[in-house]
């Protein structure tokens, strides 16, 4: 069977549910940054302590991302995604009940375990079910749910935090139990690739025929038995794997560092709370608009040049925030910076996912995101230390701009190693690096 560009509605439902899961992933990303000032006032914690709490949540994400390959093997992509969403959406409202920073930090760690599992599974499912010729665009549209969640958090915080404090913001984080779970339990299908790889070939063929997809060939399914983690370090993949990790490390350090501290940095520069939160809103809105254009460009020109350009734009915009371009200029730079950070990661994930054989996709992107979480852990922690120091808030921008430059170099490294081929007429169907073996 040959796939066509038209898609069965159930495949669009998969994309939509994954996007909805990422809305709440993005909400969680930004909600701490919108409430950290209120938390510091209530509990008297320092910037370094607040950065540690943010980083502890990201430790949970690292563990969740690294363990996702094993869980997927045991439970399947469908049940693993549902379980991850249930875990973080149950922990979020409990954060609202915390009476001190210790309990709050522990609950953020638990929520991080679930959040760390969402992205790799969503990446694998959407890459599998997206229409031919539009995989980059479909992926970044799904991934834009991440920034939509950030926009919702920043917008809600403008109305809620000044009048009602930080606790209602975490109650909202429990909404996936009402909005996502009932639909996913009833309608979300299992991965065709997973079914084939586990030897359930007849079931996989029936589901593929129902959805208008091409079922994996028996040889492709048999690759499942060779081991997933070993593929990442096999001869054709070891250099790209390390560069993927470096790119993700830089992107996530930027995303979590800026999302956590941008409002406080702007307040240090004299802006009131409402204005400081509005800069975070512009940051996330810019990532949504830019990611859609980036996805179209990646489908046309290939992922590497677009990701490199995105890192370059992000670094320049962040560096510009240290100047005094006026209110409109700051909003514009925040928007471009949002695209250059969140947008970069939106493009990296589908590129990494497609780079590996089908049976290693969730593991490949899971390890990339897991190692990248080390950057996410460092971002809030280092940002808090700089903010507490005598260097001044501008030094956070210098630091983050330098990290964007390192991400650019790692991306260009893929070209210099010669392992990335020029995109074919249908780049979404062509692996970014040579197939294993």
UniProtKB/TrEMBL annotation:
Topology relative to the membrane: Multi-pass membrane protein
CDD domains named among the record's database cross-references: MFS_PcaK_like
Record flagged with keyword Membrane: yes
Molecular function as annotated in GO: carboxylic acid transmembrane transporter activity
GO cellular component entries: plasma membrane
InterPro entries: MFS, MFS_dom, MFS_trans_sf, Sugar_transporter_CS
Keywords: Membrane, Transmembrane, Transmembrane helix
TM spans (from-to): 12-30, 50-69, 81-99, 105-127, 139-161, 167-188, 237-258, 270-289, 301-322, 328-352, 364-385, 397-420
Locations listed in the record: Cell membrane
Span of domain Major facilitator superfamily (MFS) profile: 14-419
Organism superkingdom: Bacteria
Alphabetized PANTHER family for the sequence: CARBOXYLIC ACID TRANSPORTER PROTEIN HOMOLOG (PTHR23508:SF10)
Record's protein name: AAHS family benzoate transporter-like MFS transporter
Species, as recorded: Barrientosiimonas humi
């Amino acid at each position: 069977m040959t796939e066509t560009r038209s898609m069965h509605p159930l495949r669009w439902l998969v994309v939509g549910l994954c996007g909805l899961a990422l809305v709440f992933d993005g909400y969680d990303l930004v909600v701490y940054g919108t409430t950290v000032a209120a938390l510091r006032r209530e509990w008297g914690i320092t910037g370094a302590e607040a950065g540690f709490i943010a980083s502890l949540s990201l430790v949970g994400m690292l563990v969740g991302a690294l363990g996702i390959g094993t869980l997927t093997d045991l439970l399947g992509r469908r049940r693993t995604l549902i379980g991850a969403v249930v875990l973080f959406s149950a922990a979020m409202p409990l954060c609202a009940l915390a009476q001190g920073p210790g309990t709050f930090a522990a609950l953020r760690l638990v929520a991080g375990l679930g959040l760390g599992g969402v992205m790799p599974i969503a990446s694998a499912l959407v890459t599998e079910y997206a229409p031919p010729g539009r995989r980059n665009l479909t992926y970044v549209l799904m991934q834009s749910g991440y920034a939509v969640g950030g926009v919702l958090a920043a917008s809600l915080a403008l109305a809620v935090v000044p009048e009602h404090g930080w606790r209602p913001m975490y109650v909202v984080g429990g909404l996936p139990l009402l909005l996502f779970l009932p639909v996913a339990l009833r309608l979300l299908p299992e991965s065709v690739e997973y079914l084939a790889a586990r030897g359930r070939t007849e079931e996989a063929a029936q589901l593929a025929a129902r959805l208008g997809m091409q079922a994996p060939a028996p040889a492709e399914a048999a690759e499942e038995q060779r081991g997933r983690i070993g593929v990442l370090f096999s001869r054709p993949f070891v250099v790209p794997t390390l560069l993927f990790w470096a790119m993700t490390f830089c992107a996530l350090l930027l995303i979590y560092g800026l999302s956590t501290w941008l409002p406080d940095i702007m307040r240090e520069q004299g802006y009131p709370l409402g204005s400081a939160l509005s800069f975070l809103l512009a940051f996330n809105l810019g990532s949504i608009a830019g990611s859609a254009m980036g996805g179209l460009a990646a489908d046309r020109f290939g992922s590497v040049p677009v990701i490199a350009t995105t890192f370059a734009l992000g670094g320049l915009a962040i560096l510009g925030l240290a100047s005094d371009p006026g209110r409109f200029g700051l909003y514009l730079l925040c928007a471009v910076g949002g695209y250059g950070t969140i947008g970069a990661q939106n493009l990296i994930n589908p590129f990494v996912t497609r780079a590996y054989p089908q049976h290693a996709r969730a593991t490949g992107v899971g390890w990339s995101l897991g190692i990248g979480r080390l950057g996410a852990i460092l971002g809030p922690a280092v940002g808090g230390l700089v903010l507490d120091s005598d260097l001044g808030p501008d030094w956070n921008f210098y630091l983050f701009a330098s990290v964007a430059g390192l991400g650019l170099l790692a991306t260009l490294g893929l070209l210099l190693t010669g392992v990335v081929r020029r995109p074919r007429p249908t780049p979404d169907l062509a692996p970014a690096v040579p197939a294993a073996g």
